[in-house]
Amino acid sequence: MQKVSKLSITQGSLWKNILIFSVPLIFSNLLQVLFNMSDIAVVGRFSGPDALGSVGSCTILITLYTGLMIGMGSGINAISATYIGSGDNEKLTKTVNNAFIISVFYGLLVMLIGIISADSVLSALDTKSELMEGAKLYLKVYLLGMPALAVYNYGLGILSAAGDSKTPLYYLSAAGLINIGLNLLFVIAFNLSVLGVALASVISQYMSAVLVFFKIKFSQDNYTLVFKDFRLNPHVTKKILMLGIPAGMQNAIFAFANLFIQKAVNSFDTVMVQGNSAAANADALVYDVMAAFYVACSTFIAQNYGAGKKERILKSFRICIIYSFGIAALIGLGLFFFGIQFLSLFTTDPAVAEAGLIRLKLMAFCYCFSSFMDCAIAASRGLCKTVIPTITVIFGSCLLRILWVYTIFAYFGTIQSLYLLYIFSWTMTAVLELIYFFVVYKKQIKALNSTQIVPTKS
Predict the structure, then answer these.
(1) Cα torsion at 143, 148, 153, 159 (round to 10°)?
(2) d(CA 277, CA 346)
(3) DSSP string, 288-347
(4) How many C-beta atoms lie closer than 10 Å to residue 22's C-beta?
(5) Integer angstrom CA distances of residue 191 from 24, 179, 185
(6) Does the CA dihedral 19-84-205-219 come out positive or negative?
(7) Is the dihedral of CA 303, 77, 60, 410 positive or negative?
(8) Is the dihedral of CA 448, 451, 456, 458 positive or negative?
(9) Are 83 and 95 in contact (CB under 8 A)?
(10) How far apart are CA 266 and CA 260, in angstroms?
């Protein structure tokens, strides 16, 4: 197997290396978005508006559950990058082994909880009666892929911590092509509609998980998965859970708050619900592109923190904010001017497209401001701090959003007044997260100046 070159994170130009590191992640994330969009696009164009609405009604729940997987992977990334930076191969090996076991059980747990609660959660969201059966079917089948998604994000965390952001892209590309092919086969040829796109997603998720597992298992690098040491170490397990669970909760909290937004959207007519489902695909497009720089932020800060390169920590943070803000602003402008063309990918109904355009034009100018909040969270994670940022997210992007729904939106009752809560909550949360990061940064720099680095929990 050809060895993939890995980037030096603790040496060289940060502007150049962060960009080189992030570009494969951008394409990797874009592929994930495009493959997920293909589910909605295929059912929307070939199975009709009800199928589109059924799949779209599950989007926030899917984001909630997958956010738990992604968060655990980002926690594993931060711990692994710290040990790679400090050259502690013994602790790195224990982390790689323990993290795999934890990820598998974590994925199984989320899958079981999600399937058991699917009916009651969709009912609580006031899912339209004509969309309910399709939504239940799609969600339950999709959740079967959670263990695979957990393993893939475990592998992504390990590989990116080592500076290899290309291999996950290759694996995801292969799995994604399978996903698109199966979407078309199941929906057009076999007429499976919602079930077809859900099955295609699950199959492709397991394919990417198998590929990343074998990559780490047979790697010649210091992050190899070693079966003879395959047992849980209480100290390492605790460290992974203390960092991974809060990171997963951060992602899930956003999705949980968005459940109230979905409930508010469901108070409008079916056309507005379908339009919102189509336009919400832009959220994943922008967020996942920006997320590449958040992974870079966490990885570069963690490795340089582990290596004691204090002058590169804050500079990495600033560069990642500039990159993520800039790319979100560019994508937002594109969505503003080409919104109808974008929405035509998901629906052929002009009324649904017009409803979706209301969300798209407003959100196009808001996305970039979320970079301040998310980069600050990623930077704190790179310094092995996640508990306080999680509490801050609960307040800023959960409680405030819920409060907005039951006050501002309840008063005005317009769809625009609902969508404005995004930028409001991002701004409030960003202020608090930035303050916390700079406080922690000063403390960690003081520790680096006085003693050898020993990462601590919040």
Answers:
(1) -170
(2) 9
(3) HHHHHHHHHHHHHHHHHHHTT-HHHHHHHHHHHHHHHHHHHHHHHHHHHHSHHHHHTTT-
(4) 28
(5) 35, 16, 8
(6) positive
(7) negative
(8) negative
(9) yes
(10) 10
Averaged over 330-358, what is the pLDDT?
91
Point out the least confidently predicted range of 68-72, 294-298, 363-367, 403-407. Answer: 68-72
Look at residue 2 in the predicted model and tell me its pLDDT: 42
Whole-angstrom distance, CA of residue 129 vs CA of residue 357: 25
| Beta carbons within 8 Å of 266's beta carbon, 6+ residues apart | 57, 125, 126, 127, 128, 273
Structure tokens at 158: 């390990």
d(CA 377, CA 385): 9
Q: Tokens in use for 254?
A: 């956003």
Tokens found for residue 310: 């204090």
Nearest to 176 by CA among 41, 4, 29: 29
Contact call for residues 204 and 34 (beta carbons, < 8 A): no
Residue in the block written with tokens 């310094």: 383
Both tokens of residue 220? 């010649």
State the Cα angle at 11 between 7 and 16, rounded to 5°: 65
3-state secondary structure of 88: coil
**pLDDT greater than 70 at residue 83:** yes
What mean pLDDT value characterizes the chain? 86
- 387 burial (CB, 10 Å; 0-12 / 13-18 / 19+) is middle
Confidence tier at 236 by pLDDT (50, 70, 90): confident
* Contact of 65 with 112, CB cutoff 8 Å: no
Closest CA to 131 of 201, 69, 200, 53: 53
CB of 304 closer than 8 Å to CB of 384: no
Q: Which two tokens stand for residue 428?
A: 């409030």
Name residues whose C-beta falls within 8 Å of residue 396's C-beta, 6 or more positions apart in sequence. 373, 425, 428, 429, 430, 432, 433
Instruction: Specify the DSSP class assigned to residue 98.
Output: H
**What predicted TM-score, i.e. pTM, was given to this entire model?**
0.75
What integer pLDDT is reported at residue 1 of this predicted model?
Answer: 38
Cβ contact 337:360 at 8 Å:
no
Measured distance CA(89)–CA(59) in Å, rounded: 40
Domain ranges of the chain: 14-450
Q: What is the DSSP string of 372-400?
A: HHHHHHHHHHHTT--HHHHHHHHIIIIIH
Query: Which tokens sit at 87?
Result: 């050259």
Angle at the Cα of 374 from the Cα atoms of 373 and 375, rounded to 5 degrees: 95
Rounded to whole angstroms, the Cα distance separating 70 from 65 reads 9
Span 166-193, average pLDDT: 87
